[in-house]
Specification:
The structure is a homodimer of 367-residue chains.
Chain A (H helix, E strand, L loop, with lengths): L9 E2 L2 H4 L5 H9 L22 H13 L3 E5 L2 H15 L6 E5 L4 H9 L3 E5 L12 H9 L4 E5 L11 H11 L3 E4 L11 H4 L3 E5 H4 L7 E5 L4 H4 L21 H16 L3 H17 L3 E3 L8 E5 L1 H9 L6 H8 L2 E2 L8 E5 L5 H15 L1
Parallel strand pairs in A: 1-11, 3-4, 3-5, 5-6, 6-7
Antiparallel strand pairs in A: 2-8, 7-8, 9-10, 10-12
Amino acid sequence: MQLKRQKFEINLNPIQRGGILTKEAREALIEFGDGYSVCDFCPGRLDLIEKPNIKNFIHEELPEFLGCDLVRATNGAREAMFAVMNSLKASRKEKKSIVLLDGNTHYSVYIAAERAGLDLDVVESSGYPEYKIDVKKFGEKIDSKKPLLVLLTYPDGNYGNFPDVKKLSKICKNKGVPLLLNCAYSIGRAEIKLNNLGVDFVVGSGQKSMAASGPIGVLGFNKEWENIILRKSKYYPKKEVEMLGCTSRGASMVTLIASFPKVKERIKNWGEEVEKARLFSKEMEKLGLKQLGEKPHNHDLLFLEAEFLYEISRKHKKRGFFLYHELKKRGIGGIKPGVTKNFKVSTYQLTRKEINKVVQTFREIIE
Amino acid sequence: MQLKRQKFEINLNPIQRGGILTKEAREALIEFGDGYSVCDFCPGRLDLIEKPNIKNFIHEELPEFLGCDLVRATNGAREAMFAVMNSLKASRKEKKSIVLLDGNTHYSVYIAAERAGLDLDVVESSGYPEYKIDVKKFGEKIDSKKPLLVLLTYPDGNYGNFPDVKKLSKICKNKGVPLLLNCAYSIGRAEIKLNNLGVDFVVGSGQKSMAASGPIGVLGFNKEWENIILRKSKYYPKKEVEMLGCTSRGASMVTLIASFPKVKERIKNWGEEVEKARLFSKEMEKLGLKQLGEKPHNHDLLFLEAEFLYEISRKHKKRGFFLYHELKKRGIGGIKPGVTKNFKVSTYQLTRKEINKVVQTFREIIE
């Protein structure tokens, strides 16, 4: 069956921009496309395979990259967060425990906690228009009910806000609660070092930010957690229970490895990426749109509010679909069909020329 | 980083033979290689995406193919089995429950049960040389301690044995215990219809038997289990807890869809595949090797014992590696370097000419 993707010259969808494959990853995908092809020379566990060199990647390169002792590849960021929750729960005697989240947390974290049989408590954001997370509030919540885990989204997937993780990691350390940092939108874009930030777990997403085919994620932590997160099977002592023996046994793994040298390079340009996002935000605001979230902004993910585009849509013959169609005509995609009032975009790895084209296109549509 | 796979003209590894991509899957992999590319037009859940048409595939084609009401794609067969165990456990009040397995069960099932906090009991096989599972023994075990779930491997990944599932499904139905059939080595090779077999759950593997890139699996069941397996999130009512919202969000999904028309066709040739396996077994036995497992054999996965190759290896300058090297020289791979005494091979989708070449090669090596 032939499957074709609807392609756009410029795709603004934030979940797409960091996952565009490198040339090397595209070649690796073809080379290792067949089912279990990374397992030709398996010595008994995925992370120990040397041909292709998954072992070096998982045990040397990724720990160095993430500034921590140990890393495992998972089937995605949400699967990594579930693995941490499920492991922590298995390590405790209490039947009822909670995970304490920030109010900008991705939906899949709520569901991971539900799946692990954990309750939730939430530190709400400041709300419209900045949706900032005040990390001091975590301390109060922890004092009233000690959670199994604190989880901070860094940045979140709606507004692209970076809360003060260093302050929170000090609070958590003082109060003896582990802290997981969800970096699905930062690992692979910006420098994230677990030890510098003082957190217990970092989670990244291959398809969101590491130029890999989905689904694949990374989970980093220090040795103090090894016996809990990487506890071995009592039936098969070489296998890690929480990884179900092996995780990402396929093509997504080789794309992650193949893109990695370029990912290491691209994080050095993060400053320029933030500059471009700020420029874009400024130009769009000149057109009458409003950027929500932190200002000045520190990430390429931008939430834009456009009340007047919604007003246009109410009179337009294509109704809410006019914006999608007008953009599509000009080669721009990634804003959902039907959406006008507010939407998320990302400028990640767009050239300044492309960003100008997007601004110019919005200007034309509005005029 | 350039990654190259060591390729063989003929790869005998059983985990590789059913996962070779079709031409259509290879094209789909390139088309949808980028990160989250299947999610361009997501209406809120992976299985509801219509562009590419995952919705039709998951909700129409797969249920028809597997003879059941509902199917979900998972991150693999083991992940599907964990999902069933975790769901069943969440649905019960008892703290301690067991899963009852057959003695030929794949290691990942033991680990899935451990991860779900479940104990195990095992119906042992008949042992050497046939390793058959007598399903009547399940009845006795169930009577002495009622399990949460019975799991049968169909066929197992060591000997390629098919136990009497219809008899077992009657036993389980009578005793009111759900039965999961692990068909990682059969769905995509042979016809498997849940309703004909009378089981509660079927699990398949995209990379093992459905010509897909790993990791991806399928989980089929009837509506009676919907509220347990597909229970919705209390926080996000559209999302399914056990799927963590969405599962296989990437390239492996499109390869599964793209190969599916050919997979549906190839299962019609299953009789011929069994014939070829039997022929191969007979020829190898003429050379002095011994096929373990059921005889006559009913699957392409063959466990061969070769005591005399081991004897050769003890005197050979390459020791145990001689067999791997001799085969490699002649373009044949898939038997682990260092192994001689016994090994698993598969003849799946090899031509008779290729099978003859393998037999002839072994003959030359032995002589």
